[in-house]
Records
---
Amino acid sequence: MQINLKTLGCRLNEAELESWAEAFQARGHSLTDNLEQADLLVVNTCAVTQEAVKKSRQLIRRTHRNNPMAKLVVSGCYASLDEKIQKDIPGIDLVINNQKKDQLVDIALKELNFDSMPAISTEPGEASIFKRGRNRAFIKIQDGCRYRCTFCIVTVARGEERSRSEADIIKDINQFHQQGIQEIILTGVHVGGYGSDINLNLYQLINSVLSNTDIPRIRLGSVEPWELPEEFFSLFANDRIMPHMHLPLQSGSDSVLKRMARRCKTNDYKKLIQQARNEIPNFNLTTDIIVGFPGETEEEWQESINFIEETSFSHIHIFTYSKREGTKAATLTNQVDSSIKKQRSKQLHALTKTMRESFLNEQIGQTHSVLWEACNEDNVWKGYTENFIRIELKDSNTSELENKISKVKITGIDDNAEHCIAEFI
Ligand code: SF4
């Protein structure tokens, strides 16, 4: 049977799609990018914003319209939050909510009577991940979150924390490494909460991954900046752990963080970053900031900007606050005017560019190892360093670098301060 898989949203959705792809192939089915050829269509939805919900609905409709004969399975956060989805959107044969999505492949084959497929499972052909033009794998380590940040719908859609076993995680990593993958990203909803339900923690998991796998590059997905074990940063002494962390701050004002019900205040954040920068050479820090959270005064915004500037990030994902039905923040009064949000977002984009430029300039003259992804028609190779800096290197003599790791020296940065330029050493 031919299966077409589509996802929207976060790295966790992407990781789930990768594991479904592997599971369908292990049961003798094959993947197709050609939606019209598929017998089974699977859509993994997102609900992080109203806009994401709209896009999810559009994708489901479009998928069904382009192949009304195929069976259609829908999963993910939007599908888990909207009980009326099957009544509202025609063509959906099966909805599998977030609590059951790890068993999606077996449930879909059974519920839709596809079980009759050949028992002989065939060795997966070209690894689905490469087929989808990717050379690093997202590995789901846990799902759900016990916290209730007032702007967050994910905690509502994904439920309580559930950790995967170390054995399953290590099996996935070794399977991807066998297929030629050089880098994995450990991802989840609340990565720092890994093991809370199975008497383990993230430090122990990473140690176990280091000793039971040979994958050269282990990267962490987004990690909430609290609950990291004391000795956590000592893990980065192993150069297989990539020296970059994405630690969402959300606001640099403690009174705003209080209204967001965030567990981490600016002082805690500051201490954590100081420890990381003391222990990890060439540590790269990125973050998320919400602009225009309800009630955000000019004073609070200035506090936020000052703290962000003082902390310094190489990149910031900037989210302009939008009401998300089903969250506590949507009920808060003093919603900030959109023109003020726009102005603050513009200001933060400018600051982000300045900070990135200075971080990239600090890299000039330094040596880094790069995992090469692809080469464009102008013989420019693109890839990422161990501390997650995008590299471009023009070299017409070099043929096959894709998915290889090699050493470079940083020689400059591009005019838009988006990547570094390098030469081979
Ligand atoms: S910790 Fe993260 S996932 Fe959990 S509620 Fe807060 S923002 Fe959402």
---
Amino acid sequence: MERADFAVIGRGLMGTACAYYLAQAGCDVVLIGPDEPDDAPRHDGPFGSFHDAGRITRAIAHDPVWARLALRSIARYGALEQQSGISFFDPCGAMVAGPSAGPMAEMAQDFLQCAALLGLDHQQMDGTTVAARYPYFHLPKGSVGAFDPLGGVIDPRAMRRAHEAVAIAAGARVIHAPVTSRESGLLQLSDGTSLQAGHVVLSMGGWSAMPGLGDARLAMQVYQRTILLAAVDDRQAAHLARMPSLIFVPDDRHTDLYVLPPIRYPDGQRYIKIGGEATSPIATEATALNAWFKTAGSQAAADILRGHLQALMPDLVITQTKTAACAVSFTASGHPYIGRLDDDTTVLTGGNGAAAKCADELGRLGAVAALGGDVTAEGLGADFAPVFT
Ligand SMILES: Cc1cc2nc3c(=O)[nH]c(=O)nc-3n(C[C@H](O)[C@H](O)[C@H](O)COP(=O)(O)OP(=O)(O)OC[C@H]3O[C@@H](n4cnc5c(N)ncnc54)[C@H](O)[C@@H]3O)c2cc1C
């Protein structure tokens, strides 16, 4: 029987970073989880919310806690790239924008107030200045925006690989299979093997909310999301070479839209990605969540996203599109859950659609909690306490 002092269940963005910080602290740690499937429709799950080529990173946020988490992580991207030899960060900048008046103006103002509160470097702009600087963006009259020079795009797959490479270099072991059952520290894996761990970190993304490995049910809603990828030819990609990532708050919806600049995907094609749904179905069972990831997402949602993309970038010539499924996990607190469930178990989950950029700091906090430390004393302005249903 394999044994370990620490077992991190979930080889996603938070779990892999956590395994790195535990190994770096000299712990005997095993990181457990399946590889990303080559053929999603034939994979029985679990999947991951990082199975993509791009995620927006930015320090500016509507909540100072998320801004602090991102700031600390962004400050360490360079060292992680150097240590691992894997580059994952494109510092192309991030733009957050929205209406200066009306029901959603408050959300746009929250971004600006947070930047002022934390003294974040940013350039505030009105719609005319945005249009002059980024002629391919068409923001409605009366929009206000802020450019975040610390922001840009990360490749979540590559960042996860970088964390895994430095974790292994620091002594961590990796098991490429899902855990199928758990009795305290005794773990059964899908390949028929078992492992005895002194302490377990549950970091399974959306799957953390599903009945199965956790004793208590977390108060976390897992939304099935769709993204649209719009193919961009070389001429357009050259024209958009200095495009920043964009978070845009329309004045008629209680959620934002996000657009990423052209990124080359594994199929060799460059795509602009757009996402952001006002609502979408909630998964409550692992089987339903796995079934969702086997699909290409919702065509109806993709059609709406295409309309928003054409409105935001009217000159964009969209020749070909593709869609993909994903999932975001919203907690009752609006912050990730990081803490001890009992002496043998720590939970590290709850990305709220925003954790890719700050997975490094979240992983570090997960290691602090697993080692018996107090995450409320880490100066982030939140207690990250898990909430249960
Ligand atoms: C469409 C979309 C767009 C997003 N855009 C952004 C963005 O622009 N910027 C940003 O910062 N964030 C963004 N996010 C959010 C970000 O991707 C997530 O917050 C982040 O991936 C969550 O990390 P995690 O480690 O909690 O979960 P994941 O990254 O999903 O990892 C969980 C891992 O646990 C594994 N697992 C599950 N069950 C088991 C088991 N039984 N045994 C072993 N392993 C298991 C899974 O296979 C997976 O690998 C986006 C998310 C989505 C869906």
